[in-house]
Design a protein that fits this description.
By secondary structure, this protein is mainly α. The chain is built from 53 helices and two strands. Helix 1 (4-16) packs across helix 2 (19-33) and helix 10 (197-212) runs parallel beside helix 13. 44% of the residues are buried.
Length: 1019
């Protein structure tokens, strides 16, 4: 049993002892905090003035945790003595260490969550605290009351107190009912002659506003409240500025709904907005000072207030909150909207990115409000559409404003001269700021239109051109910034053939060879691939432009910094312009590039001076394959075969050499046409096979004609098998190799019938030999492709039963599945595919029981993908659509397999919801239980009732269980025609919250529900 002295010694060892004993002390203290003795020991230490600050803080923190999590440990009737003890401790430590006082206030707030309002007296916890603290000196009572009134609303919706779900909802309702009383008390504290009393009162006011969101507090009440006046006056005081900002922001939120003032809050809005807008001159001074500091000048104006950057952020927050709260009203364009819009333009012009970005959400909302009715998926918070004439009026009114905004922020993406010397975090911050600017430019473009937006973004380039013509040096940073902005708005591109855009792209090849500029140029071209394709279809000028840009991108492949962007953009051009490139004769130059890149990447034989990453090589291969797929019949097949041969021939040479144990055979071509890495011997060259096989996979994935893919799969299958044989002992290599047949089957579809006998014969044998799950995945593609053909049942059935039996033999227990979650994932993916495309293969008396046993064994596996695959399979198995696709004897086999296992299934589902699985699985668990109830009806209710009855009262009371059963009975009564899963989801969520409220409930529920062999997973 722990004593006060033992605790003090452990704390001394933790904070001041040798490193060797600190870990031991920490473990002892953690165990102590969970013990029942902690209640009395911490109380004793807090009453001991000589225990020291460290001990007092640890004791207060432990007591707070005990009240939150272990309140149910206390005997009946102990709540009153605990309440009195906490308050006496709070009074004792009020003028001492502030963190100790805070922990004790949190403990009182936690106790308020456990104790219903009636147990605090007729006026509830707030009135009780006022009464008990009223007899103390003001120097004691006021700090305690202010902090209590701050944390009570903050903790009202906290999940830290281990209370039942219905009690948690009651706590919020009780606290919201206390709000008017709390605001009166806070108003009386404003004039108290104590340091920071006004600031603390505003902090507490903010907490109550945040809790209520304006509900239960009407506009007239707030208009008459001294707290509102104090908050607005506090904006003019340096002592209370930040507390006032938080309070006013919450007031603004409470007064608005769907972008407009609430009806009863209009007078309050008319009071708040002018006070906030009165800060504009003050913010403008901050802006001028920040601009002067950035430019290195000393002529910045001085203001009445000595505002720092933090005060500027506070004012910007206020402007942004006004704009966001009343966007719908602002979008109407009334005379009163100019002030907030101008203020937010000032915010957008601030040189600090963190301040500037505060305005971006407003501009996004404004853009949506101006284009209301034009969005395919309107937001719930948006108003209904307006007439076309009204929309055009609003857009015309705000067009000059948005044009000014574009001019203000387009330069923010410009690289700083010292960018390369910045810290990594600074560079990341700048890149994030560029993305945010790009998003805001997209918002502007949706209103202004692509043509006008392009004119605004090209202006810096036109000015740069004039400067260069006048003899100035070329500023690549300005050009790069303009192109970055143009790339950002590519979804709002002008019409195909737009002269300005055409002129811009025509000038790109003439830009200087600066790596960062080339990078952005390449990405800009790729972003506009669809526009370039549409322009090329319009005439010869567009096709010439396309050819020039493709040649330029190809030349960029030799530049280390621009090569990745160029490869990506070439792929995008090939994708968007495949038909044009196929008919324009570009395939010859593309095939030349294709051969040239084969020595790059992971093959690393650079005979042609290209140093590309393997990802870049893959991008280029995919793009060229897309163009090859667009060739006409007679040209397409030889081109695709040639692409494959270029990759496969060196792979064949390596495999043959390795098989013979000698070097490469004379005349064996290599990937790049030369020597390079790997020429030392066959074993040294074997690693080259895997990237070469990845390239084959990329071609399979990109070629669009099913017959071409099918023919290639059959032709290359012997070499795929040879590769599998060579790398059979390497799981990662086998998985990479199996991607080739997987993507080939996806691309070929039914055309792959010629490969079916080869795959059906190979896959079971290889899976049984290697136990690699990738073979299961390939088999699932076969089932998906050919499972709906009854004539294939004999071929597929033998493969399917062999592989599934082998897999289930590996998945007999939760430990097995935990060790091989990848096998479980692909096993149940394969089973699910069979249920969807060929249920006759799976729903048999031989296979289904074995598979269900594996599913139950692994249902509580922690691996997300494996768990979700199992749960998804069970849902599909219970789906009535599956039953309709089965013969009567198969349905009988399903029912016979399910019935004896359903009680355990229900218990496992409840155990998972009670804490055996993370809360992120609750939706999937509910899906299974819902499907089971819908299909089995009264049997399902019986199984559920039996499982709930096993749960002890410590975890769930009879009333809790009855509520759960009530939801389940409603689901059953509604039948198949009603989709009422949300009702059951709410019941499962509440049961889960109830069971997880503290560790004892979790352990009790799981031990009652889980079979003994799974008790080891209880945490």
């Amino acid at each position: 049993m722990a004593t006060t002295n033992q605790l003090l010694q452990a704390l001394q060892a933790l904070y001041h002892g040798d490193p060797a004993v600190k870990d031991q002390a920490n473990k002892w203290l953690e165990s102590f905090q969970q013990s029942a003795e902690a209640w009395q020991v911490t109380n004793d230490i807090l009453h001991n003035e000589g225990a020291g600050m460290e001990a007092h803080y640890f004791a207060a923190q432990t007591l707070r945790t005990k009240v939150q999590r272990d309140y149910e440990e206390l005997p009946a009737g102990a709540a009153v003595s605990l309440r009195d003890s906490l308050l006496s401790l709070l009074v004792k430590h009020c003028q001492g260490n502030a963190p100790v006082r805070t922990q004790l206030c949190l403990a009182v707030a936690a106790l308020a969550a456990h104790l219903p309002a009636v147990q605090w007296g007729p006026t509830g916890v707030v009135g009780w605290l006022v009464q008990r603290l009223g007899g103390e000196p003001q120097a004691v009572s006021l700090p305690c009351m202010l902090e209590l009134l701050t944390v009570l609303p903050q903790e009202a919706s906290s999940y830290q107190p281990a209370v039942r779900p219905e009690r948690r909802r009651q706590v919020v309702d009780e606290m919201m009912a206390y709000a008017p009383q709390a605001l009166q008390i806070l108003a009386s504290c404003l004039s108290a002659p104590l340091p920071r009393a006004r600031e603390q009162a505003l902090d507490a006011f903010t907490s109550w506003l945040k809790l209520t969101g304006g509900m239960g507090i009407n506009g007239s009440m707030l208009m008459q409240s001294p707290l509102v006046r104090a908050a607005l006056e506090g904006l003019r005081s340096s002592d209370t500025f930040f507390a006032a900002v938080d309070a006013v922001i919450e007031l603004i939120y409470c007064t608005s709904h769907r972008g407009r003032p609430k009806d009863d809050m209009a007078p309050l809005v008319q009071l708040i907005v002018p006070e906030v807008m009165a800060l504009k001159p003050r913010f403008h001074v901050c802006l001028q000072q920040a601009l002067a500091e950035r430019n290195g000048s000393s002529g910045a104006p001085e203001g009445e207030h000595d505002d720092s950057e933090e005060e500027a952020k506070g004012m910007a927050r206020l402007f942004a909150e006004v704009g966001e709260a009343y966007t719908g009203l602002i979008a109407e364009g009334g005379p009163q909207v100019s002030a907030p819009v101008e203020a937010l333009l000032d915010v957008a012009s601030h040189p600090d990115d963190s301040i500037c970005s505060m305005s971006f959400n407003f501009w996004h909302r404004l853009a949506r409000a101006l284009t209301i009715g034009l969005h395919p998926e309107p937001l719930e918070s948006e108003e209904g559409p307006v007439s076309d004439a009204e929309r055009e009026r609003r857009i015309a009114l705000f067009t000059p404003t948005l044009e000014r905004l574009v001019a203000l922020i387009r330069g923010r993406v410009r690289f700083h001269e010292n960018f390369d010397s910045w810290h990594r975090d600074e560079r990341q911050d700048f890149k994030r700021a560029r993305v945010a600017v790009g998003d805001t430019l997209i918002d502007c473009a949706t209103v202004l239109g692509g043509g006008r937006m392009l004119q605004l973004l090209v202006e810096p380039l036109l000015e740069l051109s004039k400067q260069v013509t006048g003899g100035a040096a070329f500023d690549w940073r300005t050009a790069e910034a303009a192109l970055y902005c143009i790339r950002a708005v590519h979804r709002c591109a002008p019409l195909p053939g737009d002269p300005l855009m055409t002129s811009l792209f025509s000038s790109l090849p003439m830009l200087p060879a600066v790596p960062q500029l080339q990078y952005t140029v390449a990405l800009t071209i790729g972003a506009y691939s669809d526009w370039l394709a549409d322009t090329a279809r319009r005439g010869e000028e567009g096709r010439t432009l396309l050819s020039q840009l493709l040649s330029m991108l190809t030349s960029y492949l030799t530049e280390a910094e621009a090569s990745s962007a160029s490869a990506l953009s070439i792929r995008r051009l090939c994708d968007g312009c495949a038909a044009l490139l196929a008919t324009s004769g570009s395939i010859d130059s593309l095939m030349q590039l294709y051969r040239q890149i084969q020595g790059s990447g992971d093959v690393a034989q650079n005979a042609y001076d290209l140093d590309l990453d393997e990802d870049d090589v893959q991008q280029l291969i995919e793009g060229i394959a897309l163009v090859a797929s667009a060739l006409p019949d007679g040209q397409r097949q030889p081109c695709v075969q040639q692409m494959l041969d270029v990759v496969v021939q060196p792979m064949q040479g390596i495999l043959q050499a390795a098989a013979s144990g000698g070097g490469s055979a004379p005349g064996t071509p290599t990937a790049g046409g030369g020597g390079g890495r790997g020429s030392g011997g066959p074993d040294a060259q074997l690693p080259l096979v895997l990237p070469l096989m990845d390239r084959v996979t990329t071609i399979f994935r990109a070629v669009r004609d099913p017959a071409d893919v099918a023919e290639a799969l059959v032709r290359l299958w012997p070499w795929i098998e040879a590769t599998l044989d060579r790398f059979a002992a390497d799981p990662q290599a086998v998985e990479r190799i199996c991607r080739a047949p997987r993507y080939a089957l996806r691309g070929a579809g039914k055309a792959a019938a010629g490969a079916l006998p080869l795959l059906v014969a190979s896959l079971p044998q290889r899976f049984e030999a290697t136990r690699q799950p990738c073979f299961l995945y390939v088999a699932s593609e076969l089932i998906k492709t050919f499972g709906d053909e009854p004539a294939r049942e004999l071929e597929l059935g033998g493969m399917f039963s062999r592989m599934l039996a082998c897999a289930c033999g590996m998945l007999r227990s939760l430990r097995d599945i935990t060790e091989r979650p990848d096998v479980a994932d692909d096993t149940f993916l394969l089973a699910g595919r069979a249920l969807s495309y060929a249920p006759r293969l799976l729903v048999t008396p031989q296979l289904l029981p074995v598979l269900l046993d594996s599913a139950l064994a692994g249902l509580l596996v922690q691996h997300r993908e494996a768990c979700c695959s199992i749960l998804s399979f069970i849902v599909r198995l219970l789906d009535p659509a599956t039953h309709r696709n089965c013969a009567p004897d198969a349905v009988a086999a399903l029912q016979a397999a399910l019935a004896p296992r359903a009680p355990l299934l229900v218990r496992l589902l409840l155990a998972g919801a009670a804490g055996a699985l993370p809360t992120s699985r609750l939706a999937e668990l509910t899906d299974v239980l819902y499907a089971l109830l819908k299909v089995t009806n009264q049997n399902g209710l019986q199984w559920l009732g039996e499982a709930l009855a096993a749960i002890p009262e410590e975890a769930a009371s009879s009333a809790d269980k009855q509520r759960f059963m009530g939801a389940a009975q409603r689901v059953v009564a509604d039948g198949m025609a009603v989709n009422d899963e949300r009702l059951l989801q709410q019941a499962v969520d509440e049961y889960s919250e109830l069971s997880r409220r503290h560790r004892r409930a979790v352990v009790a529920a799981q031990r009652a529900l889980l079979p003994p062999e799974l008790h080891y997973i209880v945490r």
